Amino acid sequence: MKRNITITLEEELAKEAKVLAAQKDTSVSQLLADYLESILKSEKKNEEAKEDFFKLTRKKYFLNYSKRQFQRDALHER
Prior knowledge:
Distance between the termini: 66 Å
Number of domains: 1
Strand content: under 5%
Largest sheet: none
Number of helices: 3
Helix content: over 70%
């Protein structure tokens, strides 16, 4: 479902947006919609990559941690 929104732009920016949209044979509305979609997809990929990294890091840390054998005296050396 599509929804209309209203934005306010500086006059010069609005003119430049219209020119760019005409060059791309589209509307300013579609130009902005495509740009926002691109940004949101990129953000989602970044978040997924961060989650994957942290999952991998935590998993590796816990695997390595369980193999460590600590000596009490070594931990409390001063």
